[in-house]
Amino acid sequence: MANLLKYAATAFKGACMGAADVIPGVSGGTIAFLMGIYGELLDSIKSVNGEAFKLLFKGKIAAFWKHVNGTFLASLFVGILVSVFSLARLMKYLLEFHPIPLWSFFFGLILASAIYILKGLDKWSVKNIVSLLTGIIIAAFICIASPAQTPDELWFIFLSGAIAICAMILPGISGSFILLLLGKYEFVMSAVSSLNIPVLAVFAIGCAVGIISFSHFLSWLLKKYYMLTIALLSGFMLGSLLKVWPWKVPGAVEGFDYPALPGTFAQVTGMESQLGLSIAFAVLGLAIVLVIEFVASKSNK
Question: Which long-range contacts (C-beta less than 8 Å, at least 24 apart) are formed by 278-281?
């Protein structure tokens, strides 16, 4: 009974992580840290290594399961999946019928996350500033130079999953944020809500390959070049604000949308800018992240 309650509690924590990862700007890694399972999660993911696969291929299933902390991971991912599938329909509905307030909410979330991550810098050295500016420039270039729609081919879905899943082990960066940057957030949410099995299967395989391949590298990067990495990630988030800017107008080239002021947006599209509502939702998003991060920092102390 005690074990059952423990696994139910882990599944609940996974559900909280899943809810966070559906929303760009709220990090599942931060939620894991707040829930007290971040270290166990990272160690469990890193244990899926060559030794684990040797046990699996030899048919030593029980030993493999114990080696990778299988019950913990299974309980956690069940909670994550339940939460993701539950919220995907809501996100799809809001993107279709209330896009401007929703993008404003995302804008506030990501801005607050970037600010909080920047607080982790111990000093504003030249190297850290260069890393921050590099992140901003790269992300802004991707947002402006890339079309509003990226390829829907399965190879790109695989790549998106492989990159996005790595954000789960980085407090402050969310997988949904990466999907936004890659232009695949709406597509993946639609696939989840409609149970598009081929797309979800390829995305899941990409996630598995990505997290196994990059978890060791990311751990090494954070240990070896922590400040430079934090500055670069913050730059990515600040530069990507162009991607979630609520008011966009069609560019001269078909498929390219560009940020515009609310008044310009209303004139060009003939739609209401919903400026007051947008500001309110942006402030709400900012407040939610700051509260989560404040509680997490207090728990750490």
Answer: 278/100, 278/101, 278/104, 278/246, 279/104, 281/101, 281/102, 281/104, 281/105, 281/108
Contact 135, 173 (CB under 8 A): no
User: Helix, strand or coil for residue 201?
Assistant: helix
Judge contact between 297 and 120, C-beta under 8 A. Answer: no
Query: What pLDDT does residue 279 have?
Result: 93
Q: How far is CA 110 from CA 31, 104, 186, 231, 289, in A?
A: 15, 10, 17, 15, 8
Residue tagged 């069609």 (tokens) = 250
Task: Give the integer Cα–Cα distance in Å for 165 and 107.
Answer: 21
**Gyration radius of the chain's alpha carbons:** 20
Q: What are phi and psi of 257, to 5 degrees?
A: -115, 145
pLDDT-based confidence at 202, cuts 50/70/90? very high
In which region does residue 59 sit, left (phi positive, over 0), alpha (psi from -120 to 50) or beta (all else)?
Answer: left
3-state secondary structure of 263: helix
When pLDDT is cut at 50, 70 and 90, the band that residue 58 belongs to is: confident
Please check whether residue 17 is in contact with residue 28, taking contact to mean a CB–CB distance below 8 angstroms: yes
Q: Note the pLDDT tens digit of each residue in 109-122.
A: 888 878 877 877 77
pLDDT value of residue 283: 93
Strands (E), 111-256: 248-250
Reported as a pLDDT band with limits 50, 70 and 90, residue 173 is low
Q: How far lies 272's CA from each of 98, 106, 247, 264, in Å?
A: 12, 19, 10, 11
The length of the chain is 301
